[in-house]
Amino acid sequence: xxxxxxxxxxxTAKANGLDPFDYLNLVFKKLPKAETEKDFLExxxxxxxx
Length: 50
What we know:
Elements: H1 2-15, H2 20-30, H3 37-41
Helix pairs in contact: 1-2
């Protein structure tokens, strides 16, 4: 199941014009600091500028 979630994030990043490695690197750096729903929503690929 975890691999399916990761695959989904990678493919969604690609679909939004993002480099998957750079996107996941950003997410893994910011995720520990996320506390609110807004913080988590800001990490979605559609919210990140390419």
